[in-house]
Every structure is written in C-alpha cells, then in structure tokens.
What we know:
Bound molecules: adenosine-5'-triphosphate, magnesium ion
Strand order of the largest sheet: 1-5-6-11-10-9-7-8
Strand content: 15-25%
Structural class: alpha+beta
Distance between the termini: 49 Å
Amino acid sequence: MAYLTKAPRGTADVLPDESYKLRFIEKTVGDAAELFGFKEIRTPVFEHTELFQRGIGDTTDVVQKEMYTFEDKGNRSITLRPEGTAGAVRAFLEHGLFNEPLPQKYYYLTSCYRYEKPQSGRLREFHQFGVETFGSETPAQDAEVIALAKHIFDIFDLTNISLEINSIGCPECRGTFQKALKEYFEARKNELCETCLGRLERNPMRILDCKSPVCSEIASGAPKVLDYLCGECDTHFASVQKYLRAMDIPFTVNPTIVRGLDYYTKTVFEFLSSSLGAQSAVCAGGRYDGLVSELGGNPTPACGFGMGIERLKMILEAEGKVLLEDEKPDLYIAPANSDYSFEAMRITDALRKEGVSVLTDVSGRSLKAQMKFADKKKAMFTMVLGEDEIKTGKLKVKNMNTGETAELELNNITESFSKLLITTKLTGDVNSEKSILNLTLLDGGKK
Ligand code: ATP
Ligand code: MG
C-alpha cells in the first residue's frame, strides 16, 4: 500500500514553505490583469470531451496523446481541461457574453491536466495563468495582450526573457502555404515519424510543431509561412510590430513558431526564458479568430495567452527573484500558565480583528516551550501574560529582532500594539525594500 502515501506521477504537492510564493505570484499576475482591464472568469475543471476535440483540434498532440479522458457514470465522455481557452469560449457563448460591450476581456488561474512525460517544468497537473479577449480584430488588441505578459515579467524584474512573434495567416493564405508544405514533406515522407505521417494528410502545418529530432530537422528547411501571407495578414503583422515598438517591447520575428493548437490565426507568440532549459516557453499565445465559430458561435475575433505558473516560479527562483518572504506573525502572546489562556485568547482575537497576525498557545505548553516556539515561528514581538501583568495592567512587549522592550497598557492593548507595529514596520529594522514591497503588494488592506 506504499502508493497511498505517494502522489500520482507528474503531480506536485505545494507545502507551506512554498505556497506563499505561489500566492504572491498569483496575486501579482491577477492584479496586473485587472490593471489592463481583464476580469476573472472561472470555468469547470472538466468539460465534454468534444469541446476540446473541436476547440483544440484533433491533429494536435494535446488531443491525440495528452488528454485525461474518462466516461462518467452517465456514459458521457468527460475530459479534465488540458488548457483554459476552450472552456472560456464555451462560457462566452453559453452566457451570451457576446451581447456585452466588446471586447470582453477575461483572465483565469487554473489547473490543467496533460498526460505527458513528467520532467523539470513539465507536469501532468500544472497551473496556468491565462487571458482571453473576444470581439476585437485589430492589431492593437494583439499588442495589448502581449504587453500584459511583458508587464508581468517587468514587475518581477525578469530581464532574461525574450519575446518571439510570428504570423500564421488566415485560412485563405494558409491554404497555399499548406499546399507548399505538403509538397515539401511529401518528398521526405519516409523519414517522418508515425504521428507526422497522419498529419501530412490532415494538417501538414502540425509537423512544424513536432518535437522529434528528425522531424524538427526536416521542418527547419520547410517553406516559411511569412512568405505566404495575404495582403491583409501582412499588414496586420506589420502593425502589431509597430505597436510593440511604440511600447518599447523588444521582440524577434521567428518564422518557425506555429503553436500546437489548431485555432490560431495571424499573430502567434512565445516568451522564452534561458533559465528554463529544454522547457523554455513560459508563456505562449496568439490570435484565434476561427475558434468561436468553430464552437458554434457567430464569427468573433479573439486572442489570448497561457502562462505556466510553475515555469514562471522556476524562472523567478533561478534568477533569485522571489522577493517576498513568508509572512511571519507580528506577535506571540504567551500566557504564563493555563489560567491566563482565556485573557490571552481574548487579546489575540481582538488584535486579529484589527488585522494584526497573532499567535497564542493552543497546545498547553510551558512558558519556556512557548518562547522557543515563538522564536521558531520568527514572531516579530512577544508578550507574556501572567499574574504581574494582570495586577499592574502593564504589558511588556519585546521586539525579537532588536531585543528592545516597550511597556503597553493592558486596557488599550489593541490600539497601542497596532500603533507600535506600524511604526516598527515603517521605520524599524524591517524597513528594507523587501518589506516595503510586502506592505505595498500584499498587505494592501492590512496595517
Ligand atoms: P510545450 O511546448 O512546453 O509543450 P505547449 O505548447 O504545450 O508547451 P501551451 O499549450 O501553449 O504549451 O501552454 C501554455 C504554457 O503552459 C506553456 O508555455 C508552459 O509555460 C505551460 N505548460 C504547458 N504544458 C505544461 C506542462 N505539462 N507542465 C507545466 N507547464 C506547462
Ligand atoms: Mg506541450
């Protein structure tokens, strides 16, 4: 039964010594999305399998090899979401959100499921921050979406990230391109992998995305999509680049990016980091003007991206950039013995209502053991509550970083401790750039 204490392959627990970093990352990306006018959307973790088959495309690796699909007890084919876009489009259609002022701009933070070979930066359950916009076909919209991803990397001060863009055209110009591709790959048919042989018939562009070394070697000499763009797609792509330059967003054009998903049109892009090794893409997206109608809606232009949260965290750590420290308790209140536990709990509760993070004894520990515990938890202040304190109405509060003590009145302890805490945080030894960041980014509503 050893497997009972072992999580399934490709999944990861997030323990308290790591979860605060993710909370910080998630809050930061969510706030950035809100700043850009995106609103949060939450969709179910599973959908009808057909939604992904139609929405992602059944010639893609995701649909062909990676989906977690099962039959439920009502004999429906259900799939755990491998990505967030299809569900967002379904919700957009189901709730008639196309009747709202356009463009509609959504973001989400969700778990995704793909049956892949687990390795560094590649999990079977992973998390994505994604954005989608519906209803604008202009290059400005593509550029705004790219600018949001760039803004996030800038907030984290990540300089080691590069942006690569391409255009894969519209169904019209892609027709001629697909024909040229087919001819090219047809000539080297006997070298292609099994999967790509199937793609050759149904969607030769997918071969460009194949990860097998032989196929990608052959793909490197294939015709380039940029040479086949129609006038409109060409102008659109040039204009996206002009917007990026206007916002000082550096990029390179990489004509080999085609993305793994069938619904992309025109702009496609990836943000890559050299800190990620083989799994170098941290964010990938583009325009998918064909998807909404593919899923039964009126033709609606759309674009967005998906950003891998685990990969973002890996980059931040590789570059030593997780600025946030785990939140430490502001105060530990130690009852001298169990008689004072009630008063300690009352003060703890009152201070918590003021937004102060307080710990007190809930284990029946001796005073000495409590002090050890407070030290381990790195409480900023401690105070002891016993016979003397109750008698005199005076409490000694000790700053654990400096060793200094202050005397506060028991009858207005909530107010006076809150004041002491603010002054210490703003002027004391914790007044580093780091804690200012903590205060401004995370403790927005907190004193
Ligand atoms: P890759 O080329 O690495 O397989 P992909 O093209 O399959 O990526 P997308 O479907 O575009 O990736 O997903 C967007 C982002 O989600 C990726 O850029 C990556 O950061 C992250 N991601 C994708 N698959 C995984 C996974 N199995 N584990 C962790 N993160 C992932
Ligand atoms: Mg993949």
